[in-house]
Amino acid sequence: MLALVQTDGSVPDFAVRVCATFRERVRGLLGTGSRATPVLIERCSSVHTFGMRYALDLAFVGRDGTVEHVRRNVEPGHLCSCQGAAFVLERPHTLSTWFSVGDTVRVAQCDAWKGELP
């Protein structure tokens, strides 16, 4: 399933692949390339980069939609967590704008996304 991540203007809105099942959540972006579509990992407060071939940008988001913790350029072989996070936004690392702590996000389901996927 695809979803649209809408922000308070700090980051342009973007599409994500939602990882909802246990298998999808464990996999995240593992096995993809550095141009992969970002993912939203539901019910997640910890992310690993073991087995990854590239660095990640991470945003841990609370139940109220507030970004609680941000990590940029997380190299393969690391574990990152944020106690109390409801979900994580994960993308291949780029130099483009990313979230800051305190930003607000809203997620809207969009099964028929017509925008340009990253």
State the main characteristics.
single chain, 118 residues, mainly beta
Q: Assign the CATH class.
A: Mainly Beta
Strand content: 35-45%
Which residue ranges are poorly predicted, with pLDDT under 50 across at least 5 consecutive positions?
113-118
Q: What number of structural domains do the residues give?
A: 1
Please state the CA-atom Rg, rounded to the nearest Å.
13 Å
CATH topology: Jelly Rolls
Second-tier CATH architecture: Sandwich
Main pleated sheet? 7 strands, mixed
User: What is the general shape?
Assistant: globular
- Please count the beta strands (DSSP E, at least 2 residues each): 9
Query: What's the helix count?
Result: 1
Query: What's the overall average pLDDT, rounded?
Result: 90
Structural class: mainly beta
Corresponding CATH superfamily: Protein of unknown function DUF192
- The share of residues in helices is under 10%
- With strands numbered from the N-terminus, the spatial order across the biggest sheet is 6-5-8-3-2-1-9
Order of helices and strands: EEHEEEEEEE
Our measurement of the CA-to-CA distance between the termini, rounded to an integer number of angstroms, reads 16 Å
